[in-house]
Amino acid sequence: MSERFDIAVIGGGPAGAATAMRAARQGARVVVLEKGPHGRDKVCGDGLTPRAVAALQELEIPLDGSHPIDGLRMIAGKQVRELPWGSPGDRFPPHGAVWPRRRLDAALIDAAVDAGADVRFQTEGEVIADDSGRVIGVRTGHGDIHADLVVAATGAPGSVARALGADRDPNEPYGLAIRAYVESPRHLDRHIEACLTVKDQRGTWIPGYGWMFPCGDGTVNIGVGALSTMQGFKSLNLNSLLESYRAIVQDPWGIGPNLERPRAWRLPMSVVQRHGPGWVAVGDAAGLVNPMNGEGIDYGLESGMLIADLFVKDPASAAVEYDVQIGERFDGFLRTGRRFAFLIGHPRLMRTGLRFAVGTERIAQITLQVMGNLVDSSTPGAAGFTMKVADKALAVADPVLRKTRARA
Length: 408
Ligand SMILES: Cc1cc2nc3c(=O)[nH]c(=O)nc-3n(C[C@H](O)[C@H](O)[C@H](O)COP(=O)(O)OP(=O)(O)OC[C@H]3O[C@@H](n4cnc5c(N)ncnc54)[C@H](O)[C@@H]3O)c2cc1C
What we know:
Structural class: alpha/beta
Radius of gyration: 21 Å
Low-confidence stretches: none
Number of domains: 3
Bound molecules: flavin-adenine dinucleotide
Helix content: 25-40%
CATH architecture of the largest domain: 3-Layer(bba) Sandwich
CATH topology of the largest domain: FAD/NAD(P)-binding domain
CATH class of the largest domain: Alpha Beta
């Protein structure tokens, strides 16, 4: 049996759901294949920056199910800074949110169904190509689906990415993170918390952070993430790392035991290719994760909306145009972020950088805006200027940082 759609989306996470709902709302015939069940849980910190909230608002997703967040508490050793979310020129809303993925992703995929997308759960897809290598559809256990465009929204690279030649660039950093849920009397806190001075089993500061993200439902999402640029990354024990972070937050948060087994997953931060004849990759499948904070939900939503709009405008040029426009929007920032990852892979540089980054309220506020991708080098004022200087300085230092890191 073979069916035909305008767009076939593989993967029903935020990136796939955003693609589907945006395209279906504009009249495209869309099918989504999701290998998990409805309400599947994605390992995540559940944190939404103001930029992600803006993307949800653009998709007209009511935020009722989420817990609103006013800012970030940044902790570096004994230094604590509580900073409000905010972006120069009010480009984004003044608040973020925490929304457990089981519920957020269900809200998103339900909106895609409401928009008219044909969503099939517990259905695994693999790409089909013609003799010229052009992707022409998706094979499932129930038959083939042909489509003008196949959108890989499959998350961190796996078999679909391999088949498309969209694997991770081996020369670029990636991240690993682990999370659990715990009960805490502070579940209604309106600040998310990031501890930037978590140590591994050898006592070395990791390039990454531990987080407490209050969910507002009696629980807090606790987790730790680290970048692959650190020495000894391959032998890093994420469970031990989580335990050592738990010891730091145990008393201040009054947390109970883990409500479920801690789960870890990858944070892809590059891919060698994100489009080709008949296909594009969106979200994590396109390596769109911010190396400065591990955020990926917003990039999934934005990339999904972009490809949908471009396809509706002109199916023939959509894949190429997507690559250009997504590059203009994110490539510069993400490249700076990856360079930053090599910088903080050197513990001594990280220590000095941290002292500077949280040294004063003003600089910490700029750090937050830069890390949250709420500014770019064209933004007027101090934050935009900082971004411009960081871009330039990291570009110059990058070859040395990579080489010295390799030697370490
Ligand atoms: C521990 C951790 C903490 C994180 N914390 C945050 C955070 O606080 N905030 C934030 O913004 N980001 C965070 N991230 C990143 C965020 O989780 C991802 O960037 C985001 O989920 C990307 O969405 P996506 O739709 O691209 O992929 P996913 O959410 O991974 O969805 C991909 C979907 O594709 C499906 N799939 C895969 N292959 C197939 C196939 N062959 N056929 C059918 N279906 C398939 C999967 O079942 C899955 O449902 C975190 C990541 C980790 C690991």
